[in-house]
Automatic annotation (TrEMBL):
One of its GO terms (molecular function) is ATP binding. It comes from Paenibacillus sepulcri. This is ABC transporter ATP-binding protein. Keywords: ATP-binding, Nucleotide-binding, Transport. Residues 2-233 form the ABC transporter domain.
Length: 310
Protein backbone atom coordinates (compact mmCIF):
# COMPACT_ATOMS: atom_id res chain seq x y z
CA UNK A 1 0.00 0.00 0.00
CA UNK A 2 2.69 2.48 1.12
CA UNK A 3 6.42 2.03 0.71
CA UNK A 4 9.66 3.97 0.78
CA UNK A 5 12.36 3.04 -1.68
CA UNK A 6 15.95 3.81 -0.68
CA UNK A 7 14.79 7.05 0.86
CA UNK A 8 17.55 9.56 1.73
CA UNK A 9 17.77 12.96 3.33
CA UNK A 10 20.95 14.97 3.70
CA UNK A 11 20.92 18.20 5.76
CA UNK A 12 23.93 20.42 4.99
CA UNK A 13 26.21 17.48 4.29
CA UNK A 14 24.89 15.41 7.23
CA UNK A 15 22.93 12.28 6.32
CA UNK A 16 19.81 12.05 8.53
CA UNK A 17 18.07 9.25 6.59
CA UNK A 18 20.13 6.75 4.64
CA UNK A 19 18.55 4.43 2.06
CA UNK A 20 15.50 3.59 4.12
CA UNK A 21 13.23 1.04 2.44
CA UNK A 22 10.13 0.05 4.35
CA UNK A 23 6.57 -0.93 3.51
CA UNK A 24 3.12 -0.95 5.08
CA UNK A 25 0.48 -3.39 3.89
CA UNK A 26 -3.17 -2.40 4.21
CA UNK A 27 -4.49 -2.90 7.75
CA UNK A 28 -1.06 -3.47 9.31
CA UNK A 29 0.21 -1.85 12.47
CA UNK A 30 3.94 -1.31 12.06
CA UNK A 31 6.42 0.05 14.59
CA UNK A 32 9.38 2.30 13.77
CA UNK A 33 11.77 2.17 16.67
CA UNK A 34 14.91 4.09 17.33
CA UNK A 35 16.65 6.37 19.82
CA UNK A 36 16.56 10.17 19.60
CA UNK A 37 18.09 11.43 16.38
CA UNK A 38 17.78 8.07 14.59
CA UNK A 39 15.91 9.72 11.70
CA UNK A 40 12.32 8.69 12.46
CA UNK A 41 10.74 12.16 12.23
CA UNK A 42 12.65 13.00 9.06
CA UNK A 43 11.43 9.73 7.47
CA UNK A 44 7.83 10.54 8.46
CA UNK A 45 8.08 14.08 7.07
CA UNK A 46 9.19 12.67 3.73
CA UNK A 47 6.44 10.01 3.70
CA UNK A 48 3.84 12.71 4.35
CA UNK A 49 5.35 14.92 1.62
CA UNK A 50 6.23 17.74 4.02
CA UNK A 51 9.92 17.34 3.25
CA UNK A 52 11.51 16.65 -0.14
CA UNK A 53 13.84 13.64 -0.17
CA UNK A 54 17.45 14.04 -1.31
CA UNK A 55 17.11 10.65 -2.96
CA UNK A 56 14.81 7.66 -3.29
CA UNK A 57 11.03 7.70 -3.41
CA UNK A 58 7.83 7.21 -1.43
CA UNK A 59 5.11 5.25 -3.23
CA UNK A 60 1.42 5.00 -2.48
CA UNK A 61 -0.14 2.08 -4.34
CA UNK A 62 2.83 2.17 -6.68
CA UNK A 63 2.53 5.89 -7.50
CA UNK A 64 5.27 8.38 -6.52
CA UNK A 65 4.26 10.61 -3.60
CA UNK A 66 7.15 12.94 -4.39
CA UNK A 67 5.59 13.62 -7.80
CA UNK A 68 1.94 13.52 -6.62
CA UNK A 69 1.88 14.85 -3.02
CA UNK A 70 -1.87 15.56 -3.06
CA UNK A 71 -2.66 11.80 -3.29
CA UNK A 72 -1.09 10.98 0.06
CA UNK A 73 -2.50 14.04 1.83
CA UNK A 74 -6.03 12.77 1.14
CA UNK A 75 -5.52 9.35 2.71
CA UNK A 76 -2.99 10.11 5.45
CA UNK A 77 -3.45 11.41 9.00
CA UNK A 78 -0.21 12.51 10.66
CA UNK A 79 0.19 13.20 14.35
CA UNK A 80 3.42 15.18 14.69
CA UNK A 81 5.47 15.45 17.89
CA UNK A 82 4.70 19.13 18.33
CA UNK A 83 1.24 20.17 19.47
CA UNK A 84 -0.38 22.39 16.85
CA UNK A 85 -3.55 23.78 18.47
CA UNK A 86 -5.06 27.18 19.19
CA UNK A 87 -4.72 27.70 22.94
CA UNK A 88 -7.51 30.31 23.19
CA UNK A 89 -10.08 28.17 21.40
CA UNK A 90 -11.98 25.24 22.90
CA UNK A 91 -11.26 21.64 21.92
CA UNK A 92 -14.45 21.65 19.83
CA UNK A 93 -13.56 24.92 18.06
CA UNK A 94 -10.10 23.63 17.24
CA UNK A 95 -11.56 20.50 15.66
CA UNK A 96 -14.08 22.57 13.71
CA UNK A 97 -11.22 24.68 12.37
CA UNK A 98 -9.19 21.63 11.27
CA UNK A 99 -12.28 19.95 9.83
CA UNK A 100 -12.84 22.96 7.56
CA UNK A 101 -9.26 22.66 6.30
CA UNK A 102 -10.20 19.13 5.24
CA UNK A 103 -13.26 20.70 3.54
CA UNK A 104 -15.73 19.07 5.93
CA UNK A 105 -18.90 21.07 6.58
CA UNK A 106 -22.27 21.03 8.34
CA UNK A 107 -23.74 17.94 9.98
CA UNK A 108 -21.05 15.69 8.48
CA UNK A 109 -18.40 17.72 10.29
CA UNK A 110 -20.44 17.76 13.53
CA UNK A 111 -20.77 13.98 13.51
CA UNK A 112 -17.09 13.49 12.77
CA UNK A 113 -16.03 15.87 15.59
CA UNK A 114 -18.13 13.95 18.12
CA UNK A 115 -16.82 10.62 16.83
CA UNK A 116 -13.14 11.58 17.12
CA UNK A 117 -13.68 13.18 20.54
CA UNK A 118 -15.23 9.92 21.69
CA UNK A 119 -12.27 7.96 20.33
CA UNK A 120 -9.74 9.96 22.35
CA UNK A 121 -12.01 10.02 25.44
CA UNK A 122 -12.51 13.81 25.62
CA UNK A 123 -16.12 14.27 24.53
CA UNK A 124 -17.14 15.61 27.95
CA UNK A 125 -14.38 18.24 27.88
CA UNK A 126 -14.98 19.62 24.37
CA UNK A 127 -16.20 23.07 25.48
CA UNK A 128 -13.07 23.78 27.56
CA UNK A 129 -10.22 25.95 26.29
CA UNK A 130 -7.09 24.15 25.09
CA UNK A 131 -4.91 26.30 27.36
CA UNK A 132 -6.54 24.66 30.40
CA UNK A 133 -5.67 21.13 29.15
CA UNK A 134 -2.74 19.00 30.33
CA UNK A 135 -0.02 18.10 27.80
CA UNK A 136 -1.53 14.64 27.42
CA UNK A 137 -5.01 16.00 26.72
CA UNK A 138 -3.62 18.39 24.10
CA UNK A 139 -1.84 15.47 22.45
CA UNK A 140 -5.16 13.57 22.36
CA UNK A 141 -6.90 16.51 20.66
CA UNK A 142 -4.02 16.64 18.18
CA UNK A 143 -4.68 12.96 17.43
CA UNK A 144 -8.43 13.65 17.09
CA UNK A 145 -7.66 16.41 14.56
CA UNK A 146 -5.61 13.99 12.45
CA UNK A 147 -8.54 11.53 12.33
CA UNK A 148 -11.28 13.93 11.19
CA UNK A 149 -11.03 13.07 7.48
CA UNK A 150 -11.17 9.29 8.11
CA UNK A 151 -7.60 8.59 6.96
CA UNK A 152 -6.76 5.12 5.64
CA UNK A 153 -3.24 5.44 7.00
CA UNK A 154 -2.28 7.06 10.32
CA UNK A 155 1.28 7.94 11.28
CA UNK A 156 2.02 8.84 14.89
CA UNK A 157 5.38 10.34 15.86
CA UNK A 158 6.16 9.38 19.47
CA UNK A 159 2.65 10.26 20.69
CA UNK A 160 3.20 9.27 24.31
CA UNK A 161 6.44 11.09 25.11
CA UNK A 162 6.25 13.10 28.32
CA UNK A 163 2.56 12.70 29.14
CA UNK A 164 0.51 11.44 32.10
CA UNK A 165 -0.30 7.69 32.34
CA UNK A 166 -4.06 8.24 31.89
CA UNK A 167 -3.59 10.03 28.56
CA UNK A 168 -1.01 7.45 27.54
CA UNK A 169 -3.54 4.65 28.08
CA UNK A 170 -6.17 6.56 26.10
CA UNK A 171 -3.73 7.00 23.22
CA UNK A 172 -2.78 3.31 23.19
CA UNK A 173 -6.49 2.38 23.24
CA UNK A 174 -7.15 4.77 20.35
CA UNK A 175 -4.41 3.14 18.27
CA UNK A 176 -5.83 -0.33 19.00
CA UNK A 177 -9.35 0.79 18.09
CA UNK A 178 -8.18 2.40 14.86
CA UNK A 179 -6.16 -0.58 13.74
CA UNK A 180 -8.12 -3.57 15.03
CA UNK A 181 -11.70 -2.34 14.69
CA UNK A 182 -11.57 0.22 11.90
CA UNK A 183 -8.83 -1.52 9.88
CA UNK A 184 -6.73 1.64 9.65
CA UNK A 185 -3.10 1.11 8.64
CA UNK A 186 -0.81 2.47 11.35
CA UNK A 187 2.85 3.48 11.46
CA UNK A 188 3.78 4.08 15.08
CA UNK A 189 7.14 5.55 16.02
CA UNK A 190 8.40 5.29 19.52
CA UNK A 191 11.39 4.74 21.70
CA UNK A 192 9.23 2.85 24.18
CA UNK A 193 9.76 -0.77 23.27
CA UNK A 194 6.86 -2.04 25.37
CA UNK A 195 4.35 0.09 23.40
CA UNK A 196 5.53 -1.33 20.12
CA UNK A 197 5.40 -4.84 21.60
CA UNK A 198 1.76 -4.24 22.54
CA UNK A 199 0.59 -2.48 19.39
CA UNK A 200 2.57 -3.58 16.36
CA UNK A 201 2.80 -6.84 14.47
CA UNK A 202 5.88 -5.83 12.51
CA UNK A 203 8.81 -3.65 13.52
CA UNK A 204 11.61 -1.67 11.87
CA UNK A 205 14.57 -0.77 14.05
CA UNK A 206 16.35 2.41 13.00
CA UNK A 207 19.68 3.81 14.15
CA UNK A 208 21.92 6.55 12.68
CA UNK A 209 19.54 7.05 9.74
CA UNK A 210 19.48 3.39 8.69
CA UNK A 211 17.13 0.44 9.15
CA UNK A 212 19.33 -2.00 11.04
CA UNK A 213 16.77 -4.79 11.50
CA UNK A 214 13.17 -5.53 10.59
CA UNK A 215 10.62 -8.29 10.88
CA UNK A 216 7.82 -9.60 13.03
CA UNK A 217 8.48 -9.48 16.77
CA UNK A 218 9.16 -13.22 16.68
CA UNK A 219 11.66 -12.88 13.84
CA UNK A 220 13.53 -10.13 15.65
CA UNK A 221 13.67 -12.11 18.87
CA UNK A 222 15.15 -15.02 16.93
CA UNK A 223 18.24 -12.84 16.36
CA UNK A 224 18.98 -13.67 19.98
CA UNK A 225 17.75 -17.28 19.90
CA UNK A 226 21.14 -18.57 21.02
CA UNK A 227 21.08 -16.27 24.00
CA UNK A 228 19.43 -15.76 27.37
CA UNK A 229 18.88 -12.65 29.40
CA UNK A 230 19.86 -12.74 33.08
CA UNK A 231 18.40 -10.20 35.46
CA UNK A 232 20.56 -10.10 38.55
CA UNK A 233 19.31 -8.31 41.63
CA UNK A 234 22.08 -7.05 43.92
CA UNK A 235 22.07 -5.69 47.47
CA UNK A 236 23.90 -2.58 46.19
CA UNK A 237 24.91 -1.11 42.80
CA UNK A 238 28.20 -2.42 41.42
CA UNK A 239 29.68 -0.89 38.26
CA UNK A 240 32.85 -2.97 38.91
CA UNK A 241 30.90 -6.22 38.74
CA UNK A 242 29.28 -5.12 35.43
CA UNK A 243 32.74 -4.32 34.04
CA UNK A 244 34.27 -7.62 35.13
CA UNK A 245 31.37 -9.69 33.80
CA UNK A 246 31.38 -7.85 30.48
CA UNK A 247 34.92 -9.10 29.97
CA UNK A 248 33.86 -12.78 30.22
CA UNK A 249 33.56 -14.57 26.89
CA UNK A 250 29.94 -15.85 27.07
CA UNK A 251 28.71 -12.39 28.08
CA UNK A 252 27.49 -10.43 25.04
CA UNK A 253 26.31 -7.42 26.98
CA UNK A 254 26.34 -6.30 30.61
CA UNK A 255 24.57 -3.20 31.83
CA UNK A 256 23.53 -1.78 35.17
CA UNK A 257 19.82 -1.65 35.99
CA UNK A 258 17.90 -0.01 38.83
CA UNK A 259 18.19 -3.10 41.00
CA UNK A 260 21.47 -4.63 39.80
CA UNK A 261 22.58 -5.93 36.41
CA UNK A 262 21.25 -7.22 33.16
CA UNK A 263 23.37 -9.65 31.13
CA UNK A 264 22.80 -11.06 27.68
CA UNK A 265 24.69 -14.37 27.66
CA UNK A 266 25.18 -17.34 25.39
CA UNK A 267 22.78 -20.15 26.31
CA UNK A 268 24.13 -23.08 28.35
CA UNK A 269 27.46 -21.40 28.91
CA UNK A 270 27.62 -22.26 32.61
CA UNK A 271 27.91 -18.55 33.26
CA UNK A 272 25.89 -18.61 36.51
CA UNK A 273 28.70 -20.03 38.61
CA UNK A 274 31.09 -17.41 37.16
CA UNK A 275 28.66 -14.65 38.07
CA UNK A 276 28.35 -15.92 41.65
CA UNK A 277 32.15 -16.24 41.99
CA UNK A 278 32.77 -12.76 40.62
CA UNK A 279 30.14 -11.24 42.93
CA UNK A 280 31.83 -12.87 45.92
CA UNK A 281 35.17 -11.49 44.81
CA UNK A 282 33.63 -8.00 44.66
CA UNK A 283 31.85 -8.50 48.04
CA UNK A 284 28.47 -7.89 46.44
CA UNK A 285 25.49 -9.97 47.47
CA UNK A 286 23.19 -11.49 44.84
CA UNK A 287 19.58 -11.23 46.02
CA UNK A 288 17.92 -12.87 43.04
CA UNK A 289 18.66 -14.12 39.52
CA UNK A 290 16.03 -14.39 36.78
CA UNK A 291 16.66 -16.06 33.43
CA UNK A 292 14.32 -15.12 30.59
CA UNK A 293 14.15 -15.14 26.80
CA UNK A 294 15.26 -11.85 25.27
CA UNK A 295 12.81 -8.99 24.73
CA UNK A 296 12.78 -6.59 21.77
CA UNK A 297 14.62 -4.15 24.01
CA UNK A 298 17.40 -6.75 24.37
CA UNK A 299 17.50 -7.18 20.59
CA UNK A 300 18.00 -3.44 20.24
CA UNK A 301 20.75 -3.42 22.84
CA UNK A 302 22.45 -6.31 21.08
CA UNK A 303 22.27 -4.64 17.65
CA UNK A 304 23.40 -1.17 18.65
CA UNK A 305 25.25 -1.65 21.93
CA UNK A 306 23.03 1.14 23.26
CA UNK A 307 19.82 1.40 25.19
CA UNK A 308 16.82 2.84 23.33
CA UNK A 309 16.44 5.69 25.77
CA UNK A 310 20.09 6.76 25.76
N1 LIG B 1 15.88 20.60 9.58
C1 LIG B 1 17.00 19.99 9.95
N2 LIG B 1 18.20 20.56 9.70
C2 LIG B 1 19.36 19.94 10.05
N3 LIG B 1 19.43 18.74 10.67
C3 LIG B 1 18.27 18.12 10.97
C4 LIG B 1 16.99 18.71 10.63
N4 LIG B 1 15.99 17.85 11.05
C5 LIG B 1 16.63 16.80 11.62
N5 LIG B 1 17.97 16.95 11.57
C6 LIG B 1 18.98 15.98 12.07
O1 LIG B 1 18.71 14.73 11.48
C7 LIG B 1 18.91 13.66 12.40
C8 LIG B 1 17.63 12.84 12.54
O2 LIG B 1 16.64 13.61 13.23
P1 LIG B 1 15.14 13.12 13.45
O3 LIG B 1 14.41 14.23 14.13
O4 LIG B 1 14.59 12.61 12.17
O5 LIG B 1 15.34 11.91 14.46
P2 LIG B 1 14.27 11.13 15.33
O6 LIG B 1 14.61 9.69 15.22
O7 LIG B 1 12.90 11.53 14.93
O8 LIG B 1 14.60 11.60 16.79
P3 LIG B 1 13.70 12.42 17.82
O9 LIG B 1 12.95 11.40 18.55
O10 LIG B 1 14.72 13.12 18.67
O11 LIG B 1 12.86 13.36 17.00
C9 LIG B 1 19.36 14.32 13.71
O12 LIG B 1 20.76 14.26 13.77
C10 LIG B 1 18.87 15.74 13.57
O13 LIG B 1 19.71 16.62 14.29
Amino acid sequence: MLETVELRKVFKGKTAVDEVSLYLDQGESVGLLGPNGAGKSTTISMISSLLRPTGGDVRLNGKSVVKHPQDIRRVLGVVPQEIALYEELSAYENLKFFGRIYKLRGSGLELKIQEVLEMVGLRERQKELIRTFSGGMKRRINIAAALLHDPQIVIMDEPTVGIDPQSRNHILDTVRLLNREKGTTVLYTSHYMEEVEQLCSRVYIMDHGRIIASGTQEELRRILSGEDTLLIELNEPSPELARELQALKPVRMAEETEKGLKLIVMKQSGILSEVVKEAERQHVQIVNIHVHTPSLEDVFLHLTGRKLRD
